[in-house]
Design goal:
9 helices, nine-stranded mixed sheet, 33% helix, single chain
Length: 245
């Protein structure tokens, strides 16, 4: 699907649009996830945080890799993505789940306090272009969660030493796409930056797990310089059950 730049949704640039609508990317996505250590680590993290059955929304669900595990654990699962190609694959693989096409920046069709749990994995937040659009997405995540509900996020680490000289460049890291199309830009976060943005959206951060490139997706010896050794962070943040007076 091709549309002119001026019709791109808020928070979506040409690179992201090309990525979301690449047939080759969709065809290879599940195979890539099957060998990605983070793809196992973030599911385990969600299972830890989503500790009682409820309604789960998967924000940027892709082909629905989280759906089967959530349904097996007694959750009602709703996947949201901006790629019709991804959603078609997700529906075929997960007939018991619900999937919707929507933009994470607003989610206007979803009522307030609709979900107990939310997941935004594999740097999906970082794919949204523009600081204010990413903050708007976090405010939307907060809005659609019930009081006491929690969101699990993954973000890339801006100060990861493996970035080499790019470590000192902009926090927006641009790279060629493996599947053609315009270059894809990902926001990389300093830990204090994502904590600040979550707090501004109304969340209380409860757990931060640095992730690495090991076979289990975790960072070995996580006490040793995690700000530079972590490839990224898995974060659990909760919507308070009451408003401060």
């Amino acid at each position: 699907m091709t549309i002119p730049d001026w019709q791109l949704p808020p928070g979506v640039d040409r690179g992201l649009w090309d990525y979301l609508h690449s047939d080759d990317m969709v065809a290879n996505y599940d195979a890539q996830m099957a060998i990605a250590p983070l793809a196992a680590a973030d599911v385990r993290f969600c299972e830890l945080i989503f500790d009682s059955p409820g309604r789960v929304v998967d924000l940027g669900c892709g082909t629905g890799r989280l759906a089967k595990r959530m349904i097996e654990r007694g959750h009602q699962y709703v996947g949201i993505d901006l790629s019709d190609e991804m959603l078609a694959a997700a529906r075929e693989a997960n007939p018991a789940a619900e999937f919707r096409n929507a933009n994470l920046v607003d989610l206007l069709g979803i009522p307030d306090a609709s979900f107990d749990w939310a997941a935004c994995l594999f740097s999906t937040l970082g794919m949204i272009r523009g600081d204010e659009n990413r903050r708007a997405a976090l405010r939307t995540f907060h809005r659609i969660l019930k009081p006491g509900g929690a969101v699990v996020l993954h973000v890339h680490n801006r100060w990861f030493h493996g970035l080499g000289l790019r470590l000192f460049s902009s926090a927006d890291k641009t790279m060629p796409q493996a599947y053609g199309g315009a270059p894809l830009t990902l926001r990389h976060y300093a830990k204090r930056e994502i904590v600040r943005d979550l707090a501004s959206a109304g969340f209380v951060v409860e757990m931060i797990e640095p992730v690495g490139r090991g076979t289990d997706g975790l960072l070995g010896s996580s006490w040793l310089l995690p700000a530079f050794r972590a490839y990224g962070y898995l974060i659990a943040a909760r919507k308070p059950s009451f408003k401060a007076m």
